[in-house]
Design brief:
There is one protein chain. This protein is of the alpha+beta class and about 100 residues long. It has one domain (about 5-95). The protein is globular and about 45 Å long. The longest helix has 24 residues, at about 75-95. β2 and β3 (about 55-60) form a beta hairpin. It contains three helices and three strands, in the order βααββα. The protein has a three-stranded antiparallel sheet, with helices on one face. It has helices at about 20-30, 35-40, 75-95; strands spanning about 5-10, 45, 55-60.
Amino acid sequence: MIKHGTRVELCIDRGKGAEEENKAIFDQLIAAKAEVETAFGSELEWRNQEGTRCCRILKQITEGGWRDDEDKWPTIHEIMVDTMIRLEAALRPHVQKLKV
C-alpha cells in the first residue's frame, strides 16, 4: 500500500466468475487507449494482471497519501477530485459503447 501517494481508478469487476467478461471490457477500453489518454490529458496505467479477477485503469497521485501527510489532505483531495472528473469524462464515451 502506498503511504505517501493516492490514486483514482476505474476497477472493472463484474463479480465472482466474471474474469473473462472483465477482460473483454478491458480489451474494448484499451483499444481506445490513445483517445482516452488524449482526452484525459496524460498517460494512464492500464492493468490487466494475469491471475487477478479485476482490471484497472488508473492514475497515481504522488502529492501525498493517507499516512504522515494529513496536513496535505485538502490539496490532495482537490487533486483527486479533479483527476477523477477528468478520468470519468475521458472514459464515459467508451464505457457507453461497451458491448458486454
